[in-house]
Amino acid sequence: MTETCPRCQYIRLPADKGPAWQCPNCGIAYNKQPKATPNTQPPEQAPSSFLDLEVRYRPLNRKLYLFIILFSGLTLFSAFKKNNLIDASLILSELTQEPTQELISSRSPYAEPYNFRYMDIQYQVKPIANYELWGLVVSHNDIDGISDTYHDETSVDTKDLCVIWGENILNNNFHAVSFSSGAWTCYFEYPHGTAFNANQLSNNHIITDNDAIRETLAQIQIGDQIHIEGELVSYQDERHPEYWRASSTTRTDGGNGACEVIFANTLDVIAVGNPLWRFVYDWSWKILIILLIAKTTVFIREVTQ
Asked: What is the rounded CA–CA span in Å between residue 24 and residue 12?
């Protein structure tokens, strides 16, 4: 009988002496040593270090880095493009008309002050004139930015809309104008020789007792074409009964007190500016967040396994 030792690979010869169950070369018992087979593979070893794991996840990490860079760039680019002012050819004809204003007689029953509550604060409103405006939004304050520390989501007048109309939107001259907004003011400047009518621009403080109008106001962005109907008013809140914020009643004034204060009964976006770039921006930043979460998850697995 021939037998191959599983340890030393010695092949037993008929002339070998000793027990048949024992290898005459190394002395081990044949049936106590596991036999190796040609197809037996050594068990896969678990990664022994962070470097081993890094090699394993390297292809995935490369893809994640690539997509993070791609969507970071797309988010930044679309954030810039979505606020570009549209071409004059896309502006509706309604915006060429002047705002309509009709002073309310002090003897009119519509001149009586009225109250409304917002965020458990009572506001008193004094109507001054009926007012209707069509305009292109060129700037607005940012209640989430560091430039506006006066407004937040609890403010009755959250977003001020700076709009232009009339001759200003008949051609693309307004693209040469730089518009910006502070907490209460709209600023603009333009190169010498640019045709721009400052009397066809207004900064509008919007207040309302209608939640749907407040939601519409929150969604309005630069480039939108809007229609507002309501009243020019003065108003105050119960915390400061000595102070009234009063509306301007002319478009030709400037400086402090030149803004229109509108109690909005209707507020409509009649044309959205740059809808494609807004769509790209809304999705690109969300996908970017998902990618960053995925990269963080992979990193945690690398350092904890």
From this structure: 7
Closest to 169 in 3D by CA, of 205, 139, 140, 200: 200
Q: Is the domain of 105 the same as that of 218?
A: yes
Dihedral angle computed from the Cα positions of residues 146, 151, 152 and 153, in that order, rounded to the nearest 10 degrees:
-150
Whether the CB-CB separation of 181 and 222 falls below 8 Å is answered with no
Rounded (5°) CA angle 209-211-217: 100
CB–CB of 221/142 below 8 Å? no
Residue pointed to by tokens 């002073």: 103
Domains identified in the chain, total number = 3
pLDDT tens-digit series, residues 33-73: 555 555 555 555 544 565 666 677 778 888 999 999 999 99
Residue at 12: amino acid letter: R
Buried b / exposed e over 30-43, threshold 16 CB at 10 Å, is beeeeeeeeeeeee
- pTM to 2 decimal places: 0.74
- Cα 19 from Cα 21, distance rounded (Å): 5
By C-alpha distance, which of 270, 255, 1, 4 is closest to 137?
270
* CA 210 to the chain's CA centroid: 25
Domain that holds residue 291: 50-80+280-304
